[in-house]
Amino acid sequence: MAEHKTEGDGGGQLEDLPSGPLPAEIKSWSTEHVRKWTLELKNRGEECANIMYQQKIDGESLLLLDIPDLMRIDIPLGPAKLIIHKRDELVKLKAEMLNDPGVQAGGPCKPYPFNRFHEFNRYRINSCLDIPESGALDLIEPCHEFKAYINTGDTSKEAKMKKFTDEVVRFAAACMNSRTNGTIHFGVGDLPDSSHGQILGFSVEDKESFGKARDDMIEGHFEHKHLAAAKKCIKPPRFVEVLQSNMTSSVKYVIEVDIEPTFSVCEENFFHVYNMDSRKSKRSKIKELKEDAKEFKSFYIRDNSSSRDLLRQNTQTKPPEEYSTYIKNISKLSQERKEAEEKRLSIARNSVQGSKLCEMITGGSHSLDTSHFESYILVTNKSHPVQLDSLSFLLDMNLTAVLDFDPESSEKGLKMFFEDRNTNVHSPAQYKITEPVEDIASKLKLTRITSWIFCNGNIKGEEPSDISYWSTEKGASVRDVVSFLCRGEVLPPNRFLVIFLLLSDVIDGKDPLLEIFNTFQQELKGPDQILCICENNRSFILWKDLIAARYGVNISYRCISELSFAEINGTVLSLWSSNRRSSRFLPCGGGSKVMLTKKMEGFLDTLDILCVNQCEGGNEEKLSIQENFYKGGKVSWWNFYFSEEPGSTPFIKRDKFDYIIDTIIPDLCSSTRPCALFNIMHLPGCGGTTLAMHVLWTQKEKFRCVVLKDRAADLDDVAKQVVQLLTYETTEQSTRLPVLLMIDDFEEMDAVYSLQQSIERACPRKSTGGTNPEVIILCCMQSRHEATVDTVFIGNYLSTPEQKLFQNKLGEMEKTYKNVETFYGFMILKENFSPQYIKGVAKNTLNSFNINQKQAQLIAVMVLLNVYCKNTSLSVALCEAFLGLPTRPKLGSCKVQDGFGKFSPLVTSCTVPAEVVFKAVRVIHPIMAEHCLEELTSSTHGKSKAEIANLLLNTDQFYECLQGKEKLLQDVHAMLVKRYHSQKSEEKFSPLIQAIIKDSSGSEETVLSNAAKRFEKDAIIAQLLARYHYLKKKDFKEAKDWARKAKYLDGDSSYIADTSAQVIKHELRNAIVTNQDDPIKPDQLGDYLKMACSATEAFKETQVIAKKECALRYQRRGDYTPYNISGRHGEIQVAVMVIEVLEKIPVFSLDKLKLSRILSDLIPIQAVASQDCMRRKHETYYHVLQSFEPFLHNVKDNMRKQFDFLDSFFINLKPWFSQNDVREEKTRNELLRSFHKYVELFCKTDPQQLKATKNIPTVYRLRQFLEIHKADTHFGILEYLSAKGTDLTMQIVQQYKVLYTTKQVKLRDDVNYIYANVVLHCVRPQSQIIAPYGQLLEILSQVLLHQIQPADSLAVHFIATVILWPENNPLFPQKLSEKMGTCLSQLRSTFMNEMQSIDHGKKPVVHFYLGQKQGYERFVSHGALIKCGSLEQMDNGQIWREEKVKRILLRVLGVVQRNCILANTCNPNVKVEISPQYKCHLKGREDSNVSFYVGFTMKGPVAFDIQ
Fold first, then answer.
1. What single DSSP character describes residue 899?
2. What angle do CA 658, 662, 667 make, to 5 degrees?
3. Which residues contact 290 (CB under 8 A, 6 or more apart)?
C-alpha cells in the first residue's frame, strides 16, 4: 500500500484520512474514502478532494458523476475529465477481476532473485508475490514496494516516466539511508484495486528509455558529491517477462529496480534528494540549491512498508529532532550494515554437489560413456533464453524422451535449442496403448530417436491449458505417456534415469510437474530413479516443500540445487570422453571432408556411420573393449583402431580380405546398376562379420561406409537414408563418393535383393549420365553358399598363413592379459575350430552343472536357444531378475556376465536392434553352444533336450521381465515351428522337435503341449499341434480340433486354412494305405469319397483365401510373400487319390475306359451300370458312386484346370531373383507325378477299348499326344525353351503339321503352331521341319483377324508382340507391324486381369530377347543369353558387358517419357512403350535419348541395360 503513503507533492494532510485499504466495492465507499482516493490521483490537487468532500460525494454518487456535474461544483475541466477517466478505469478493472476466476485464484510466487539480471525467472499473470511490503529486515534481505503502474491511461510518455522516476528516487533514497537492500516493483498490484502483490504487468515499448530515465533521475535528484554512490547503489531497471496462466507470452513486463547500499559504497554518508527538474544542468542545479535549499530538500527512510520524509513535517529552519537523531546514528547504522555483509559472507560454504551430480547422473560410474543408465527421460518446463547456452550438456545425452511443458518451446525454448538434433515430435495421445506396446514403440522410433512430447499444447493446433485446468484437460494423456515409458518392454527396469530440469520455479500446488513427478515415482516405486535439478536454493525449497506437502515425499537427497546451470553444464560435459565430444567427418571427392552434424546423424537412425576420424581421441576402456572382443563379443570399430596404435600388431587379415579389396570392389565399381551387391557367406562364428567390418574400416576414406543397424527396418526408409548420406553436402557437379553399405544376418536373399531395389528406386541419377554404382551393398550372411564371382565363402577352418597370424596375436595378448586361456572367442579360431578343444572347454566349464541352480537353468536354456534358433539372446534385465542381481546404482550393480558364476566365460553381452533396442546376453559362439548342449545331454549330466525345452516353456519367470520378452517369445516360437528344407527332403517339423523325437521319442508331445499353453492364442502353434497329430500320431480327430482352433485364431490365413484341408487329405491317405481289404468295400468307398469331397472343398476355400491374401499384400510395404499354391496342389493330390481308389473297386478294376469317361463327364454312372453284366453284384458300388456323381464328373476338368493354372504360374512367373526355391522344385516334381497319373488315365486309352469297328480318329490321337506332352498350351510349349529334349520339340512341330492336314484346326492350334516353331528354332535352329518364317507371319495375320477369346488373349498377344516388332526386311509386312501397339495394349490388359492377382513376390519371365538378325534369328531365348555369362552376372548386370551379348542382341534407341521409354523402330509409324527393368534407371533422364536391350514378357517388353 506504499502508493497511498509515499506521495510527497500533494500538499494535503493525510492524518485525517481513514486508515487501511479502501473497500473492494466502490459503492460502499464513504466520503472520506472518496477524498482519500482523489488525493492519491497524481496532479489533481488537494482542492479537488476537498470540494468533493464538502459536496458529500460518497462511492454511490461517485459512480453517477459525469464531467458537467464536476464542473458545476467548480472543479476545472481538466481535473474533471481525469477524475472521470480514472473512475471508469477502476470500474473496468474490477469488472475484469470479477469475471476472471484466474485473477481471483492467483497462486503465490517468489520474487526475482535480488541483484540478478540473467536469471530465468518469469512471473505468471495474476499470481501473487509471497512477500509483504516491508521496511528494513536484516539489511541484507531486501525490502519490497509494489506499484501497479497501470492506471496511467492516456497520460503522456513524459508523465509516465516522471511517475516511475519519482517513485524510484524516493524508494532508493529511503533504502540507502536505512542501509537496507530493497526492490521496487512496477506492474505489481496492491489492495484495494488488486490482491496484495498481484502480478499485473504492463506493455513496454521502449526499454532503453527506462534506463536513461534512471541515469537522468540520479543526476537530477542527488547531490553532486553522491552521484557516484547513487549510481552504484541504484541498479539498472530489470524487465521481468509476465506469462499468461497457460505459460505463453503476454507481451507484458514487471519492471524492478534493486537498491544495494553496500558499506564500501555508502560508508557513513547520508543522502538528501531534491525535487528538481532532471533536465537542468548541474551548474543551474547547484545555484538553485544555494538559493532555496530548504524548500526542495528531502530525507527519506524506510518506515515499515512506506518511505517517509523526515524533513517534510517541519518547515522550521532548524532540522526536526527525529531527523537530527537519525543523522547522529548513521555511523552506527553503517556499522550494522558492514557486520551484516560480513555475516552473510561467513556462512557461504563449499558445495559438494558437483561430485553428487556426477554420481547420480551416471549411476556411480562417473563416466557417461559407461553410465549405469542406458537412457534418460527429461521432464522440463518453461525456459528462458539466457538459460539455453548452459544446457548444451543435454544435446549429447541419450534422451529417450523429453516431456516438455513449455507451449512456446519450439519458438523460443528448449525445443528450438535442439533444432540441430534429430527429434520426433509427438503428442501424448500417440502413447495410448491401442496395439502391442513394442509395435507402438517401433512406430514412434523410441530408443532410436529422441521423442519430444509436448505436454501442454504446441502441437497440431492444440491450445495450452491454464494451470488450473491442465489436470482435467491434459493430465490423463500425459500420465499415459509416463506409464508407457516406464513399461519394462520399453525401457529396462532400473537402467534409465528421469531428470526433472526446473527451468522455471514451481510455485503452485496445481503445477503439472508435481502431478507428473508423482506419476513417475509411483511407476518407479519411489524417487530413486529420479534426479531433480534446480538452479538455486529458492527453486529447490519451493519444489521440495510442494512435493512434501502434497505427497509426503522427501526428495532432498535426489536434488541438485547449489550449482548454477553453467556449472552443471560443465560438470556433465566433462563426463564424456574426448572422443564423444569431438566432431565427426565424412569423406568427399578429391580427398576433402565434410563435418557430419549431430542432426544428420540422428536423422540417419537406421545406419551406423563409420567416419574417417572414427575413434580418434582414444578410449580409456581399451582393455575391457579388447577383452570383450577376444572373449567372443562382436567386433567394434575400436578393435580396428586399437590395432593401428603404435606397438600393436595389425588386425588379422583373413585370406579373402585382399581379394575383396583388390578384385571384387573394383569390379563392382564398373557395374551399370545404381546399387551393386556382393556377398560374404559364412558359417556361424567363423569371422564373416569381422571380415566385412574390416573391409569397411580400410575403405572409410574411399567410400561413405555404413552398417545397417536393424535388418527388420523398413527397407524403403533404409533406402532413403542411404541416399541422404550419399548426397549429404554434395553438389551435382562434385565427385560423389559411393556408399558402402554393410548388412548382416539377413535370413533370405530375397530381402537383400528387395533392399537393393529400394535403394535403386531412391537413387538420384546424375543428369551428366554417370552409370557407375552409387551404392555398394556388402551382404554378410550365414549360409553354406559356394563361392561365385560376387560371393566369397568363409568356412570353419583357417589356412596355414591365417593360423600363423593368430599365433602371433596370441603372443601379443599374453603380454597384456593374464587369463588369455579363457578368451574362448579368440581361442576357438586360433585352435582352428578343433572339436576336441571346444568339447574340452564345454566339459570343464560345465563340470559343476546343477539344474537346480539358477545359473545352470539360465545357461541351459541359452545354449538350447542358440543351437536351434540363430542369433538368440536374453535381455540383461531378464538375466538380472532371474539371477537376483542388484540393478540399482546405490546397491552396487555388477556386470551381468559375472552373475553366471563359473559359466560366465560362456556368455558375452550384445545389443539387440529389435522394435525397442535393448542390451542382452548371448552364448559366445554357436559351435560352443552346440558342444555345451551335447555335454548337458550326455550321460554325465543326463539332461534331455525335451527337459530343457520344458524348463524354458514352463518357467514363468523367463516371461515376467518385459524387456526383450517379445524377442524371446519370437525365438522360442521359431525354435518350435520353423522348418528347413533341402534338396533331399522336406522336414516335417522343426530341427528341435525332430531332435527330441530322435533322442527321446514321445517326449515331444509334452513339449508341444507346453508350447500350446505358453502360446495359448497363437494360430501357428495350434497349426503345429494339428500337423503333429496327423503326421506323427495319426490322431485325426485331435488334429481336426487343433486345426479348427488355428482357423478360429486366424481365419484369414491361407496357410492355416490349408492345414484343415491337409488333415482331411492325410486322413484319406491313411485310410487307403491301412486298408487291407481287396477289393475296397462299398461302405469304405463311400467314406473315402466323402472325405475326398470335404478335402476338395477345404482346398478350394484355401484358394479363395490365398487370392485375397495376395491382394492385401500389395497394400503392405515390405511383404513379398508369393501366392500360396498349396490349395491348388492339394486339390490335384486328392483327385489322384480318388482315381487310385476307384481303380481298385470291381466296377473299374478291369475297365479303365469306363472310369475315364465318367470322370470326364462323358457318360452318366447309370448308363455304365446298365451296361454292366455284373450289375447286381456291383449294385452297392453304383449306389455309392451315384451319390457322388457331380463330384466325380468334374474330376478331370478340375485337374486339368489346376494343372494349367500351375504350369502357367511356374512358366510365366519366377522369383524376383535367380534363387532356387527347394519347395517349389519339390512341388513341381510332385505335380509331374500327378500329371503322369492324369495322362495314364485320360490320355493313353488303348485303341482296342474303342468300338471294334472304328480306329482311333487321327485328330483324337494327335491331340492326345499334344496333351501328354503339354504341347496343347502356349506355356507348355514355352517350357521346352529350357527342356533338355529337343527331339520332342521336333515331334510336337511335326504333330501340328499333321493336324493341319486334317482341316480340324482351331485358332488355338494356329497360335500353338507359331509357338512350337519359334521354340524349335531356339533349341534346334538347324532343324529342317521348321516352317518358313513367312508362313508364321501369314498365320499370325489371319489369327489377328479373328475375335480373340479371353482364354487365348494372353497367348495370342504375347507372340504377336514378339513377332510384330518391325525389322529391316523387305519381306516383312510393315502394315502388319503397325498392329503391334494394339496387341501390346491387349497383352497388358489381359495380364492385369489374369495374373496381377497372383504375381505378388514374382516377376514375369523374359522368354525372348530381341536379337540383331532377322526372321527366327531375332528371337534369343533366355537360356541362350545365360550361356554368354552366368546367372550371377544376370543379377548384377555384368552380363551386358559380355562381348557375346553385344554381338547377338539389338541395341534399341528411345526417349524417356515419365516412367517408361518410347522406343524407336525401323517403322516410323511404330513407337513402342517399354517398361524399364527397374524404374530407378530412368531417374534424372526425363526426355533423354537412351539405348537399351529389349526382353519380352507376358506383361510386355522390358528395357535392360539402359544407357
1. G
2. 135
3. none
